[in-house]
Amino acid sequence: MRAFAVRVGCHSGSSYPGQPLWVERENARAEVVEVDASWREEERLGFRVRLADGEHMLLYYIPELELWSGVTQSAAPRRAIVAPKDAPP
Fold first, then answer.
1. Disulfide: which of 16, 21, 41, 73 matches 12 by Cβ 3.0-4.6 Å?
2. Residues of the chain whose pLDDT is less than 50?
3. CB–CB of 32/54 below 8 Å?
4. Residue 82 domain-assigned?
5. 29 Cβ contact list (under 8 Å, min separation 6)
6. Residue 83 falls within a domain, yes or no?
7. pTM of structure
């Protein structure tokens, strides 16, 4: 996996950055349709997002450098939940 620089538009409420709204790379903008997770690390903030085209990305923001970077991930496989045959309906 290799990170690359991206432009990110996001909500900026009481602190920047807030929830990502769009990601732009190679002059193409994609809407963020879902933020799957967000977290804070020692030197950066992280977001796992799903884009309108179904692609998942990890986005990182480093406040000291005012820098966004991203890593493309393959879509996570969806797991089917199957009830045991002897379970009541």
1. 16
2. 77-83, 87
3. no
4. no
5. 22, 23
6. no
7. 0.74
